[in-house]
Amino acid sequence: MKNWRHAHFEAEAARTLLDRLLARHRGGSDSIGASLTDGRALHVRARNAVDLATLPHAASLCFRYLGLKDGELAALNEPFAGGVRLSDVTFVAAVSLGRGAGPDLLIMSRVRFAPRLALDEALDSEGVRIPPTPIGRFESPNEAILGAIAAHPLAPPEFYPRAMQTIRRLSELARTLKAAAAGPKPLLDPERFESYLEQAGAAFRERVAKLPLGRAVVAETLATGETIKLALDVREERVSFDFAGTDSSVSAQLTDRATFGACFSAACAVAQAPIEANAGAFACIEVRSVPGSMVNAKAPSGLGRGAVDLAAVVSELALRAFAQNRPTLKRASSSVGMSRWQIAFSDGKRHFDGAFGGVAGAASPEAPRGWSRGESPSSIESAERNAPVEILTRAGRTGSAGTGVDPGRDGQIASVRALAAGELTWSLACESGAAGGFAGGSSGAPCEAELIRSDGTREPLARSGRAAIQAGDAFEIRTAGGGGFGAPARPAGTESADA
Amino acid sequence: MSVSAGLSLGESFAELSVSEAPFEGSGAEAPARSRWQTARKSISAGLQEAIDENARARGGTLVVSSWAAETQIARRLGSSIALVCDLGFETWLEAGLEAGLDSVTEAGFDAAAAIPRRSSEGASIWSPVRRDQRIGVGGRVRADGSIATPLDREAMKAAAERIRTAGVGSVAVCFLHARKNPSLEIEAAEILRGAGLRVVASHETPCAAESALTGSSPAETELERGWLTVLSAFVASSLAEEEREIRSAFEPHADLWDVRWILADGRLEKTPSLESAFGLEAGLDLAHPDETIVHFGMERFFIGARDRSVRAGFPWIRALDRQPASPRALSSQPLARLRLDDSWAPSFAFETRGYEPGPVVFGKSLEPTVLDVLAWRGRVQAIDGLPALSIERAGLRISETLLALDKSRSSSMRRPDIDAIGADLEALFVASLAADLLAAGIDGPMRATGPLAHAIAPLLAARTPKWAPRFDTSSAEWAASTSLLKLAIHSAAREARA
Fold first, then answer.
1. Which residues make Cβ contacts (< 8 Å) with residue A495, sequence separation at least 6?
2. Would residue A399 be called left, alpha or beta, if left means φ above 0 and alpha means ψ between -120 and 50 degrees?
3. B216 CB near a chain A CB, below 8 Å?
4. I need a surface site. Which of A56, A381, A440, B309 has the fewest CB within 10 A?
5. A371 neighbourhood in chain B, CB within 8 Å
6. Per-residue pLDDT reduced to its tens digit, B131-185
7. Mean pLDDT over residues A104-132, rounded?
8. What DSSP assignment string belongs to A419-485?
9. How far apart are CA A310 and CA A321, in angstroms?
10. Long-range contacts for A153-156 (Cβ within 8 Å, ≥24 apart)?
11. How far apart, in whole angstroms, are the C-alpha atoms of residue B352 and residue B335?
């Protein structure tokens, strides 16, 4: 039966297989994917929106410049070569499924390490830069190169073991993919990849057709004074995001592909679509931006903050634009982005952590709340094992959310005490002011941070900065609450005189 | 001669499998015969029947496992519980769950991880512990295991009294670094038990083999440990009741049967425990540790790991998978099902909502399931003389959903020839199932069990000979014993009881 239904079922079976295989071989907080050697994504299981389009791009560049053969590996973190930020390292491998002379697939895994919090705007201060680099084969990774990277002063301390673990996972994935493609009735057939992408695109176009049609223009001015402008144009089967007029920035940037991921994920959220993160679906989305603007950064701009904060702002802005054409999508403001802090100790140990603000109240359950994650908060026990710190508090910030018919959600409270002298560096989320309410809902509480000295003295902190601390000093942050939506009903017996 | 038997206390059924081959590793490939008694109080009758049928048997080893705990978690059927933890960390479980646990979700791509969340998903993750029942108590263990602050005993006693008067069923106790030094937890548990409360302490839970947050091994964090503890407390009360009921059912046969309860790590113990409630599927042949057991259940198939050292902690993490933060989270490794979403796009989604609402053939829903496809294709048979299944209804619903699908794709109003596409549907289902097995790392012989094993396993074997199941599918008795009709009877009986 070679009709469209059969093709769709086969595409669904292939998608399911790829999805489950990728899920099985993904490390805890990593993103993983498979793409064709021409760079088109076949399936991406992303941990963050920014990974959706950057991961296949990274694989494509590695294949193109290094000429990877079956079983060969590469690594990179260069943000302007498909990476995101220097603390996220991508491992790429080529896999042949036995249909031709060269590889049929590229598989990639992006490993998240604790970022190095740098207030300087230069990229090089965020970590060791790894351009597309060959690192051997599955059965014989180049330990010398991996060791050299690990020995760099700015490399994450756990780089080498995590790298080897990721290579093992990719090796197992490659073996399973080969097994799936083997035999007279293969579960995975490279000759059907085009059909699979076509089906995925068709399915996503149907969902895009349900988006509110028309144009919408929105803008967001960051606390630093820079403005992002977005003109959204939704037509049947295609959505365009035009960021013309967006400022450049020295505090937060995104590469164009990272911006694409943020826009694509917003469209998926509004379209209520499970993400078919592949080239077929990507073709329904168009993103235009001026090179050098903060959503299309040029080297050597620092990208650490952008990857977390600015991506969330872009998604939030896109959601606001969609809401202009559909009232049920209207919402208050969420506290976007992640506030982060680190304590560096003289013995080289480093404590890093972060916290999110609260999300917004909305007009209906249909409306996405605009919440995204950059990295997972660390385990309390791990943090205390790895550095001389004591985590004092990690809890919800009760009462910080804006009130409303649909109230916002609370922010978080986190505090940590240093058990040795060190240097504290902090950076609050891009938009750390109060997340505004909407349609009568109230704003959430703003983000606040304090340095609490061992004698109890409290020093309010600015949006970002550094400070020398002593043993016994503590850092406390109370992130912003989300804005509330809609005026809450008045209690009985309090009707106004004109009612 | 002694026999070996396995009793699986599942979500919907209690299945008893009896094999003439003992567990002692004789390697005999005797066919297994299965009977089931669907009501728990009939377990005793089922055992008696097994004894009567095998005249040579003088009893044997009965291995029991129960899915009750996971069922209760998935359906939120547990009791009201409280959580005692370090002061200042009363809400960290929720925050940590939102941040990390979707990384172990197996129900497909977790859109919530990467994109702005929908309002419904933005609501609090389900937690078995109400916020007003989470109590922080002073006391702190350092990372090196030393005591930074001793337990505030007065606060602990006040908490115990508060919890007791709230009528809580169980208390989860979880302090930081309890693996390193459980003394605070031990002390807190002693005070709580002194107040007459049932306590589950985190240092007593099996250690997760792999961190759900980082994927590194071994790297259990307080998150996995805390959630396991909370979930254990959630089911502890009701499981205690179940254990009493089951133990009393076995008492009349104590002289004949060596009853063992299987734990999550594959060990057997004489008495049931909370761990056994999270146990492996019954029928696990401990004499063949290199085998893979695949249980083809009504709403899922389950795979028993070959490497029991990896197995340790795995069911506990799987229990976390069942967090019903969204309907998708109810699935674990289910059978593929034909599903149409709001856009009438078909998919063999690896999702199921469990046994509820159930297949069309049982008259329980209008949404075709794989069971309906199998029944409609004649892969499962009814016993003559007994009430017929709604096979025609199943075929009609499959046809109607496919017609709706056609409407969305073309202007043609012709009803699809479901007989023509039936073979394709079945082939695609089998391929999907094979893909799932492959994705789970199964690439060799398997021993198949479960109510649908006889229907599905041969299809898999025909497709991929290396997956030929190790049981006698040609036995009419086997087919009859696992017939769909008995499942239908059970369903009707259960409805009547409800």
1. none
2. left
3. yes
4. B309
5. 116-117, 122
6. 889 999 999 999 999 999 999 999 999 999 999 999 998 999 999 999 999 999 9
7. 83
8. SS-EEEEEE--S--SPPP-BTTPPPPPPPEEEEE-TTS-EEE--SEEEEEE-TT-EEEEEPPPPPPB
9. 16
10. A153/A128, A154/A86, A154/A116, A154/A127, A154/A128, A155/A127, A155/A128, A156/A87, A156/A113, A156/A114, A156/A127
11. 8
DSSP codes joined into one string, B428-451: HHHHHHHHHHHHTT--S-EEEEST
Residue B95's pLDDT band (boundaries 50, 70, 90)? low
Contact B117 A272 (CB under 8 A): no
Cβ neighbours of residue A213 under 8 Å, at least 6 residues apart?
A234, A235, A236, A325
Return the half-sphere exposure (C-beta side, CA atoms, 13 A cut-off) of residue A258. Answer: 31
Q: Which residues contact B291 (CB under 8 A, 6 or more apart)?
A: B285, B306, B445, B446, B447, B470
In the block, tokens 């223009």 appear at A217
| Chain A contact probe: residue of B98, B115, B321, B352 with most A CBs at under 10 A | B115
B91 at A interface, C-beta within 8 A: yes
CA distance B34 to B482: 7
* B422 exposure class (CB count in 10 Å sphere: 0-12, 13-18, 19+): middle
Distance between CA B32 and CA A213 in Å, rounded?
Answer: 62
- Residues of chain B with Cβ-Cβ distance to A315 below 8 Å are 115-116
Rounded-to-integer distance, Cα A149 and Cα A146, Å? 5
A208 to chain B, minimum CA–CA distance in Å? 11
As a whole number, mean pLDDT of residues A211-218 equals 89
* Distance of alpha carbon B409 from the chain centroid: 38
Most confident range (mean pLDDT) of B223-227, B292-296, B362-366 is B223-227
Whether B250 and B41 have beta carbons less than 8 Å apart is answered as no
CB nearest A371 (choices: B88, B117, B425): B117
pLDDT at residue B440, as a whole number: 62
Structure tokens belonging to residue B444? 């060799």
Continuous segment of H or E residues that includes residue B186? helix B183-194
Pairing of strands A41-45, A72-76: unpaired
Rg (CA), chain B: 24
Beta partners for residue B300, in sequence order: none
In the three-class reduction of DSSP (H, G, I as helix; E, B as strand; rest coil), residue B452 is classed as coil
Torsions phi, psi for B302 (to 5 deg)? -125, 140
The answer on pLDDT for B355 being more than 90 is: no
ipTM over 0.90: no
